[in-house]
């Protein structure tokens, strides 16, 4: 029956497990272990664990499994594994698939911590990584080799909002048997078509839109039953990156309003982008929903939305950007995104500060760049706040 439900119905009901008490709200099972009726039952469960059987919270938990089943149903995958954070999902997905000597091709426009995992962590253990312009399919074709095991990309890059052609990249990768791992945070599960377009593993930081209230860390890896249960879960349960039951409960509650929130935020983001485009203090307004965006057509085909994040480039540089940020009253200066509260971030000095100046310039992360995560406030208040801050800048 779940397969026939529309997305908003799945967001409310999919994966629900009720105890014998018949509770309406999802229950939090705050337990690290589970009791067995007999030694024989314990032995049998360690040999083969069925869907509604659990051994240890690091391996699985009823509340966490509810969240995993719900997000898998929404994303359109067979299974999911919930992780302690978004970066636990990224590093877990990649590390579970790779060994020393393997080759990875990755888009170079990435969140700073993703770059660290690829360059420093995987590189330290003998994995070769080739970085390319993710928007250029010819660059993917040139970089992928017969021994390429994984390709990695952000479907919409952080913070410059480049849109990568998932279908085109997947066709190139699958031709050599490589696994396609997509960090899909900016697309959100609401606008995602990643499975349909050919992604093998889809990664989310649930800290962002899925929680949506700035309350808790979390991540999730979505994919086939075979890949999640035999590759990802095996790695994650032994290395300890699983989600806590309490955080899973928060994510379940966040999902109930996810569709409503993301659509409202995306509508406001488009209004903000249109209001700011052409402003004389800005050298760029970057938003996939604007026709001026280089991948606007692809974004509309791939997600049907410009998303919830607008990036602006203040022409006068860092000092002007700081004056702008300090003049904001509705927007909060922070480094999260996807929150109900609108957030302004200066990537060059926060989320991407560890990159060299040369690398920042290559990625288009200028001193004046500001990332705006659009929340649920009235869009007219957001626009007025931004225009006032720009007048100060």
Topology record:
Blueprint: H1 7-13, H2 39-47, H3 62-75, E1 79-83, H4 86-97, E2 103-107, H5 112-124, E3 128-132, H6 137-143, E4 148-154, H7 166-174, E5 179-183, H8 188-191, H9 194-197, E6 201-205, E7 219-223, H10 225-239, H11 245-255, H12 258-276, E8 282-286, H13 296-302, E9 309-314, H14 318-327, E10 332-333, E11 343-345, H15 357-363, E12 369-373, H16 379-392
Parallel strand pairs: 2-3, 2-4, 4-5, 5-6, 10-11
Antiparallel strand pairs: 1-7, 6-7, 8-9, 9-12, 11-12
Helix pairs in contact: 1-3, 3-11, 4-5, 4-10, 12-16, 14-16
Describe the protein in words.
This protein has two domains: 2-255, Aspartate Aminotransferase, domain 2, CATH 3.40.640.10; 259-392, Aspartate Aminotransferase, domain 1 (Alpha-Beta Complex), CATH 3.90.1150. The protein has 16 helices and twelve strands. It has helices at residues 7-13, 39-47, 62-75, 86-97, 112-124, 137-143, 166-174, 188-191, 194-197, 225-239, 245-255, 258-276, 296-302, 318-327, 357-363, 379-392; strands at residues 79-83, 103-107, 128-132, 148-154, 179-183, 201-205, 219-223, 282-286, 309-314, 332-333, 343-345, 369-373. The chain has a seven-stranded mixed beta sheet, sandwiched between helices. The protein has a five-stranded mixed beta sheet with strand order 8-9-12-11-10. The longest helix has 19 residues, at 258-276. It is globular, with a radius of gyration of 21 Å. The mean pLDDT is 95.
């Amino acid at each position: 029956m779940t397969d026939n439900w529309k997305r908003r119905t799945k967001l409310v009901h999919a994966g629900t497990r009720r105890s014998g008490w018949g509770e309406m709200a999802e229950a939090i099972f705050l337990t690290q272990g589970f009791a067995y009726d007999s030694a024989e039952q314990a032995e049998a469960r360690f040999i083969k664990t069925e869907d509604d059987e659990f051994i240890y919270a690091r391996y699985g938990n009823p509340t966490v499994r509810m969240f995993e089943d719900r997000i898998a149903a929404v994303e359109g995958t067979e299974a999911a594994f919930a992780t302690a954070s978004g970066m636990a999902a990224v590093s877990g997905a990649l590390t579970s698939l790779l060994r020393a000597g393997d080759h990875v091709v990755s888009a170079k426009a990435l969140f700073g911590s993703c770059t660290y995992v690829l360059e420093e962590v995987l590189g330290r253990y003998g994995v070769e990584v080739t970085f390319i312009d993710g928007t250029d399919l010819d660059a993917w074709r040139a970089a992928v080799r017969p021994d390429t095991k994984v390709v990695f990309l952000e479907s919409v890059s952080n913070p410059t909002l480049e849109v990568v052609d998932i279908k085109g990249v997947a066709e190139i990768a699958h031709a050599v048997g490589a696994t396609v791992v997509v960090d899909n945070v900016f697309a959100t599960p609401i606008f995602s078509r990643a499975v349909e377009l050919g992604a093998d593993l889809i990664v989310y930081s649930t800290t962002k839109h899925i929680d949506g209230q700035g309350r808790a860390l979390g991540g999730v890896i979505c994919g086939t039953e075979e890949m999640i249960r035999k590759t990802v879960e095996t790695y994650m349960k032994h290395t300890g990156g699983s989600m806590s039951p309490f955080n899973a409960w928060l994510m379940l509650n966040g999902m109930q309003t996810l569709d409503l929130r993301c659509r409202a935020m995306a509508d406001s983001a488009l209004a903000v982008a249109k209001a700011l485009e052409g402003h004389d203090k800005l050298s760029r307004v970057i938003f996939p929903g604007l026709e001026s965006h280089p991948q606007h057509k692809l974004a509309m085909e791939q997600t049907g939305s410009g998303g919830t994040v607008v990036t602006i480039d203040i022409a006068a540089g860092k000092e002007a950007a700081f004056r702008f940020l300090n003049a904001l009253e509705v927007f909060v200066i922070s480094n999260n995104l996807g929150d109900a509260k609108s957030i302004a971030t200066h990537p060059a000095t926060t989320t991407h500060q560890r990159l060299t100046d040369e690398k920042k310039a290559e990625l288009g992360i200028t001193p004046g760049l500001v990332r705006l995560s659009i929340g649920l406030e009235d869009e007219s208040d957001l626009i007025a706040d931004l225009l006032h801050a720009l007048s100060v800048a």
